[in-house]
Amino acid sequence: MKPWPYPLWIAHRGAGKLAPENTLAAFRLGAQHGYRMFECDVKLSADDVPFLLHDPVLERTTNGRGIAGSLSWQQLTALDAGSWHSSAFAGERLPSLADVARFCLGSECLLNIEIKPTPGTEERTGKIVANEAAKLWADAATPPLLTSFIPQALQAAREAQAQLPRGLLLDALWTGWLEVAQKLECVAIVCDQILWDANTVAQVKNAGLHCLAYTVNEETAAQALLTLGVDGIITDRVDLFAPSSAAAKPRM
Predict the structure, then answer these.
(1) Which SS3 state, helix, strand or coil, does residue 213 take?
(2) What is the chain's pLDDT, residue by residue, as a tens digit (252 residues)?
(3) What pTM does this model have?
(4) N or C: which end of the chain has fewer CB within 10 A?
(5) Residue 116 lies in a domain
(6) Is 85 tagged catalytic?
(7) CB neighbourhood size of 87 (10 A)
(8) Which one is catalytic: 12, 33, 85, 210?
């Protein structure tokens, strides 16, 4: 198994729920809590600019409406992506992947990019996101980890930029999941925390891959995962878990 260059603790969507998800405000707040790796969701605008947003539609986390991928980047930059969370973040904008790269590289932070295509754009999104990531992190010592629930997106990323590390996201152990990850030359499996047990951890590690868990917000769950030997824990609770700790030590 190759050495794992990423920290154990990973802040989900920037700072979990303490700030509007997938915004630079969330990244800044996560960094203030000591986190040095972040997870985020990336899709494409109508004019192929990779940007951060989880949902296919805009309503939940912006003042926009409709399918996000149907709008140009210029249109998307005009949206308010902070007021839905709280008035303190009113006016926060959707960041591009380039914006996030500047923050991470300038702050010496690492990134897990979940490729989150608008339905019907799986291959195109995987290819463009991988190409953009390779360009943005060309001089970085540690590249971003590209992950997705969608094998087609990971395959397109692999074909575009084979050197970038990949991880297969799973919310269920569907038939052939490990074989697909191996075919995609993934370096990690990123599972819903409930799917990890001694057997699945052994399967993955025996195959030479690393084990990451999402979204872990309880101390008992984190401790159980650490006992199993997982390599990464994605959490919303940047205010609870001290990321410099090797164990699930809550902040005092």
Answers:
(1) strand
(2) 778 999 999 999 999 999 999 999 999 999 999 999 999 999 999 999 999 999 999 999 999 999 999 999 999 999 999 999 999 999 999 999 999 999 999 999 999 999 999 999 999 999 999 999 999 999 999 999 999 999 999 999 999 999 999 999 999 999 999 999 999 999 999 999 999 999 999 999 999 999 999 999 999 999 999 999 999 999 999 999 999 866 666 775
(3) 0.97
(4) C
(5) yes
(6) no
(7) 8
(8) 12
